[in-house]
Amino acid sequence: MEKINNKQLVEDLLAWYDANARILPWREEATPYRVWVSEIMLQQTRVEAVKPYFERFIHALPDISALAHASEDTLRKLWEGLGYYHRVSNMKKAAIQCMERFNGQLPSTYDELLSLSGIGAYSAGAIASIAFHQPVPAVDGNVLRVFSRVWVIEDDILKESTKKKFQKLLMEVIPKERPDAFNQAVMEIGAMVCVPNAAPKCHICPLAPHCKGYQTGVTHKLPVKAGKKKRTIEKKYIDVVVYEDKILLQQREKDGLLAGLYEFNTFDYPQEEELFLSTLDIEKIVPLKDSKHIFTHKEWHMSGKLVFIRKKIKGNLVSMQDLEEHYAIPSAYKAYKEGLIEWMKHM
After folding, report:
1. CA–CA separation, 125 and 112 (whole Å)
2. Distance between CA atoms of 166 and 144, rounded to whole angstroms?
3. Contact yes or no for 195/23 (Cβ under 8 A)
4. What is the β-pairing status of strands 282-294 and 316-319?
5. Which of 18, 155, 157, 229 is most buried (most C-beta within 10 Å)?
């Protein structure tokens, strides 16, 4: 098989990108801050889901100073529904670091970006190349998938050593004159053409003439991922307690899963829930539908109910308006928040 002509590969890739790149709000005005916000939001989240969050976040916190001074509750509310809340918590830490060390600006070099909280090798590469035009690769899942197929590399892409291997290989390919377009083009190919799981659209891929995987018929076998650990299943019992027009909320611990977010009363065992309910002066109980939420390493299988009480109890009782405007409820509780809203409309 002929050796891949990397120069021609890059030219074909960039020509495709120039003709097919999606219009995205962070691309229209690629300032360092906007690039940073978008890249963090896009981690483990689809582009279409990110768009409204990005616009709302930038409107509320237009620069690094605003982000550095934002309250944790404000940040959680702006991030509500995006998940992986440690991302926005680290962004605030990084913004404070920028205020203290870089005169309120994002640093322009890969190594300096890497020194900020929440910015790893991929994010540093993306920001350095897109915002500052540094010839640095940004190796994410899309990039690993595309070039595993192009070069037929069968290393386990979940290993850190594999990511470093690709980073080194891509340093030899990335064009110094257009590193921003190159990295975005590979991401775009991975998102739109060289897709995971389902059959990739090789017949419309600009890299097909260069792709060893396509030419040898092994594209569907790549990339290689070692078997992930099976997610654990946890049962949860959710009580949405309502007193008059107020809802009882609990704040989760500052560390761990969904750290610092607000939730409805949640129990691991039915006996715990029964004990809690026995302390209330209950007017009526309305069952809500069962729900499931998938985290990275676990699943919550939930059953829930609305619990209307006659007597006020101690705790954080909030209005529906405050719930909507100020309190970030994790998307794990979406079905129960929606059930609550529907019932409150008719009260």
Report:
1. 11
2. 7
3. no
4. unpaired
5. 157
CB 123 within 8 A of CB 40: yes
CB neighbourhood size of 20 (10 A)? 14
Look at the block and give the residue holding tokens 């792709």.
211
Domains of the chain by start residue, with CATH:
6-221 (1.10.340.30), 232-345 (3.90.79.10)
Cβ-contact 36, 108 below 8 angstroms: no
pLDDT tens track for 165-183: 999 999 999 999 999 999 9
- Answer positive or negative: Cα dihedral of 29, 32, 33, 36: positive
For residue 291, the number of C-alpha atoms closer than 13 Å in the C-beta half-sphere is 19
Strand residues in the chain grouped as ranges (E)? 232-243, 246-251, 262-263, 265-267, 282-294, 298-309, 316-319
pLDDT in tens, 39-53: 999 988 889 999 999
**Positions marked catalytic:** 39
Q: Compute φ and ψ for 318, nearest 5 degrees.
A: -125, 155
